[in-house]
Amino acid sequence: MRPVTFTILGCKGMPYRLGQRLIARRYPLLAAALILTAVTLRVALLRAGWPGTDSDDSTMGLMAKHILTRGERPIFFYGQAYMGTIEAYLGALMFAVFGVSVFALKCGLVILYAAFLGIMYVLLSRLFNRAWALVGLALLSLGADDMLYHQLEAYGGYLETLCFGSLMIVVAVWLARTDGDLKHARRRLWAFGAWGLAAGLGIWSDPLIMPFVILSALLLVLTCWRTVRSRLALVALLGLLLGVSPWVVYAATSPSLDAARSFLQRAPDPQPSQSSPQQPGTRVTVTTPPQPSPGEIAINRVLGTVLIAIPNNTGATTLCPLAVDEAWPPQHWTTPRIQGCMLFRGVWGGAFLLLLALALALELRTFWALWRKPPAMWSPDMRLRAARSGGRLVALAAPGCTILLFALSSASSYTPWQYSRYLISLLIALPVLVATLWRHAPPLSLKRWRWRRSARLAVAAVTAFLLIVLALGAVGAFRSVDAERLATRQQHDLIQRLLLQGDTRVYSDYWTCLRMIFESNEQIICGVLTPQLTHAPSRYPPYDALMGAAPHPAYVFPLHTPQARGFPALAARNGWRIESSAVDGQYIIFHVLPT
Fold first, then answer.
1. Which element (helix H / strand E) includes 582?
2. Where are the alpha helices (DSSP H) in 71-101?
């Protein structure tokens, strides 16, 4: 019997051939669908108004606006000597297309995250297979509210760490796999340059990427030593220098002798002046809180890392949401609800660390067994297995090093929730972790049911659980839209009130100041006051010059802040007559009346 064929526009069997092509390309098509889903989810949140903006996010918006409208070319985040400006230039491009807005600024972040997902699909396909690459994309396309928040705030450097960190692993694995293959000689030249360029751009964007740079370079040394010693290492070095060239320009043109060391330390926070902006001679007494003991600091660093930062970056906030002031410091764990939630977070964070250590140990054993034989004697199959194993080690160990560095920093002790975004590289480790555990787990056997045989079932259950948790987390982010819209409306009402009153020069706290400048399209210029009501230099010095020339600035503070509570006392000490008005029950505006 002859097969049935279809004739459409004179092409016999076209639907069949089209179906065959779709089946053959099902993995890339499914990957594209997952990436599109991730983009759609994030754009939908942005259109709904979540998350809003704050002063750090608005600073990036101001940089993008100045690039587009003033022709400025910032090298680093305003007010800092580190953290590059890729997000600002991408934001300027979005502003040129959509106009200046918070939504347009954050669309640039969605593009960066989509690029990261594309790189991760390639990476997971090379380290495991395309099926696990799809599972990894499913995990990364979703996210709990805190994870999505980190991806949609233009703080600079964090999404770049994901993109360039994963890209370096992809290139390093390919170089390790093709070492000694003459067919790829020309492509390997370009690949070494690409690795160096990714490393340089990543270092310029944020020093947090250094574990990825060091460990991926170590992988190349261990698997391609003869090649690394050749001129190809020079190509990688030239690529790295090209990537960090903005910093080289900064160091060469800055009048400060400390500019060359700006990558070795974070720029110090501006020290507040001890004088009021209106009365240079007025002194303000600053009360220094008692300092914790070294033992308390060490305990807080462990607690901040395991109970706050790791759970925030892996989805625990979905199942046990807490307000920031409830979660930290530990003295606030006073109710059964908070205590139960922190216990759950401790189990979650501790389990993640144990699984990460287990995966690293298993993979290290695999790589060591291969590397004991000189790489020059590897067969093509051994080289492929060594490249994959080494790539898995880098993808797990680099985020692990970031966890260790975070735990050793003061941020983990004092403000672990705010700075938990430093562990954003756990997004690279998470899909690699579950796939590595699956690979090393004994195959499931229903005929001989033993605890060792159920290991893959356990990994599958954990992966499914994570997918459900992250999906619920994405739904939870939409539930936060109303609260975010209310806060945004209150900010808008404040700006409109100030403009109607002609108050275009104001002093406020940091987290109100730069946001107000950006959202008013720089119609309002603001100077920063510390909680002690002393002046702190602005991230953008021209704003300070404008404030210095303002004859009668207003003072605007959120209610229940130290500035709002302390300003009447400061006015009384200086003999100022003041009047105040409230906005939406959230802000208070002080005017100093003429004497």
1. strand 577-583
2. 86-98
Spatial distance between the Cα atoms of 517 and 550, rounded to a whole number of angstroms? 16
Q: Strands (DSSP E) along 445-553, which ranges? A: 505-508, 525-529, 535-536
Task: Kindly report which listed range (306-315, 322-331, 467-476) carries the lowest average pLDDT score.
Answer: 322-331
Listed residue (436, 500, 514, 430) closest to 465, CA to CA: 430
User: Which tokens go with 305?
Assistant: 């890392």
In eight-state DSSP terms, residue 181 is -
**CA-closest candidate to residue 432, choices 380, 390, 370, 469:** 390
Per DSSP, what are the bridge partners of residue 129? none
Return the H-helix or E-strand segment holding 505. Answer: strand 505-508
Please tell me the predicted confidence (pLDDT) of residue 211: 96
Query: Are the CB atoms for 437 and 459 separated by under 8 Å?
Result: yes
Q: Who's near 257: CB < 8 A, 6+ residues apart?
A: none
- Answering whether pTM is above 0.85, one says yes
The CA-based angle 245-155-550, given to 5 degrees, is 95
* β-strand partners of 579: 591
- 329-347 burial: b if 16+ Cβ within 10 Å, else e: eeeebeeeebeebbeebee
